[in-house]
Amino acid sequence: MNVSDFDFYLPGELIAQRPIEPRDSSRLMVVNRTKQSIENSFFGDLGSFLRAGDVLVLNNTKVLPARLIGYKQDTQARIEVLLLKRQERDIWEVLVRPGKRLKVGQCVFFAGDLLKGQLMKVLASGNRLLGFEYKGVFEEVLDRLGKMPLPPYITTQLENQERYQTVYAKERGSAAAPTAGLHFTAQLLEQLKAKGVEVAEILLHVGLGTFRPVKAEDIRAHVMHSEYYRVLPETAERLNLAKKEGRRVIAVGTTSARTLESIADEAGFVKAGEGWTDIFIYPGYQFQVTDGLVTNFHFPRSTLVMLVSAFAGYELTRKAYLQAVKECYRFYSFGDAMLII
How many other C-beta atoms can be found within 10 angstroms of the C-beta atom of residue 183? Predict the structure, then answer.
């Protein structure tokens, strides 16, 4: 398939700039693959479409306040650094803007001498390796100085940075939020558990590659970014028991779905462990574990909409997206949600 097959017209005013309150008051489009039907609802009514025994799989990654603003010591030129991936203890792969201002060996200072970064290497991808020196604990310094790395299509200021975290976020490491999870409240999760829905947590640290456009016309030539995942043994046991008993596994977000499919065998069972995945899911892929998917509405020509098309079917996905545009659903990170079952 070609990347143009996943294009559609999206009016700019449908790109959500602010999160809706409360979290679970967003709209929910329910897409049924068996019935080939589309139904409109609200996220707070998610339990109406789930069954007792379903396993809801959440990605409990936490977004780093990874955007840092600093200055070169010699010229006081403004430098913006975005942390992408920790390579070693104090060495990070980063984006530097503007990249030409900082040469190998030069330093950038953040809040005086509280944090200092030295450019060590320019990578083939254009990203940089930056070595940090600081006083105290790096994560605490980052909490003081860093800002939430909002996607480039969100142009308004986020007043509450916690609004770009899920309510169940635990382990720092993501450069972007697993946005399908932003709709959940603690109360909604308790309601689902009371109904008999199981909740399982996995980890995948989301990289900025999730926003990287597909430039190859033939999508098979696209190379996915690599992201770190971890699935604990007790979680794998619960998922495998559900599969043996014929219960549904519902992935919350494309990150959860990619993790599940990365650790699955052909029989649909998963293996605990950790590592890096660059799985690229597009139409033609046969899902092994995922029986349902909670996801947001994604941007045209993206790997995300390709994954959704693989799960729901190309024609049904296209129909759903055209209806979402027509009915003014809110798109992207702070937008509305879709449940595919």
Answer: 28
What's the CA gap between 64 and 230, in Å, rounded? 18
Are 95 and 81 spatial neighbours (Cβ–Cβ below 8 Å)? yes
For 212, the token pair is 């990287």
Q: How far is CA 307 from the centre of its chain?
A: 13
Phi, psi of 211 (to 5 degrees): -100, 0
Q: For domain 67-145, is the CATH number 3.40.710.10?
A: no
Q: What is the pLDDT of residues 121-175, one digit of tens each?
A: 999 888 999 999 998 899 899 999 998 888 888 888 888 989 999 999 999 999 8
Model confidence pLDDT, tens digit, residues 81-128: 999 888 888 999 999 998 888 999 999 999 887 899 999 999 988 899
- CATH number belonging to domain 3-63+160-340: 3.40.1780.10
Per residue in 207-227, pLDDT (tens digit) is 877 767 788 999 999 989 889
Model confidence, pTM = 0.91
Q: Please enumerate in sequence order all residues whose Cβ is within 8 A of that of 117, keeping only pairs 6 or more positions apart, or say none.
A: 68, 70, 81, 94, 107, 108, 109, 110, 130, 131, 132, 133
- Three-state DSSP at 294 gives strand
Q: Domains of the chain: which residue ranges?
A: 3-63+160-340, 67-145
